[in-house]
Amino acid sequence: MTRRHHAIPLQQASQESPMLAQLMALTRESSERLRSITPLMPPMLRAAVQAGPIEGDCWCLLVSSNAAAAKVRQLLPAFEAHLRTHGRQVNRIRIRIQK
Prior knowledge:
The chain is 52% helix and 19% strand.
């Protein structure tokens, strides 16, 4: 028996799989959170920060270096307050350094 594998669009796959749909929604939410706080970051820092995973009420930011992480740590209270005032459920932001 020959099986043929057909590629399907990601949108269709997410509609057929609740787990994939949830993952896509979390990814979209994480990207929207980053887009929301980007204006609060110094321009030189923006390229060093990426949206990371959301785990419950904790969100993770991925940063490219220790220096960027130190600066982001200083900005965390402003980020958290900004997200809360814009209706995002964030109680804590974690920082993870990408190597």
